[in-house]
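dumping these here so i dont lose them again. two proteins, back to back, each one seq then structure tokens. dont judge the mess
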Amino acid sequence: MSTNRSKEKYDSLARYYDQRWERYLEVTHKVAIDLLEPKGNDIILDASGGTGLLIERIISTIGDEGKFYLCDISKEMLDIAENRLIKFRNVYLSQQDVHHLDFDDSYFSKVLSASSFHYYTEPYEVLCNFHRILKHEGALIIVDWCSNSLHFKLFNILLRLLSKYHVNIYSSNELKSLIEKANFVVEKIINFKHGLWNLVGIRAIKQR
């Protein structure tokens, strides 16, 4: 999916996104937070962080000691995130494409991508960006759709044919290989389900 198409899609979804996907977000955010293991002194980036709901949930667990950054390509999603998170002085929002992140090298202790990786047109490039901005032994957490099952492989093919927004759903092994290629060591993989949705959560550590 091109950057412009991604922006177009999520600008149109922004107003009802959290309500439409409420239960799905509860399930995937719980896994993401468990893998993230947030601590008070963390500097965390929520990449493609949308409406800020996940950051709000993280802050509720550890308070305002750390720093939280959220970037997203959609201005409409960021407007909702700003309204949601304006009361927190340690949250910073920016409109950015994950393929071209404007952050300093080795700045973040943790980077999180939740339910977005299947939209990235250049996934290896994105992972290299995440590697660049993470501190040594910083953690990368990815939670996303997963094509381990036959029905999700078929769903992936169907979406590629019918949706101008869709790029690719990866199996857990494919995602693991991509992450390792970008010089991460995969520490943990969780395969889980929500209804018919096959999902994967991965925690990886930056090496060199």
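---- next one ----
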Amino acid sequence: MDPGVAACYFPRRDKRGRSAMATVVFTANLQRHMPLPEAQAPGATVREVLDGVFAANGQMRGYVLDEQGALRKHMGIIVDGVAVADRQHLSDKVAPNGRIYVLQALSGG
């Protein structure tokens, strides 16, 4: 079974048996482009969680990820205070109740 589909039927549970979902927060500068409320989705990796969130917002998916599904150069993702290491496959692990921040990367000198 596809892991994304399996997560819908068999969501992860926290120690108390509650459904455990990561929270995704889009920063204020991204909110200027379109309303993106804080969202929750199941998943054990950044990819799985974002796939769940982007299922409802394909336009934002195209802004954050490129055609191959990798994180665009002008974007950054922070998981529980740590920048993602795998920008290509987004395989970084996410805690059951983790927080993912999606932001525009700054550059310049």
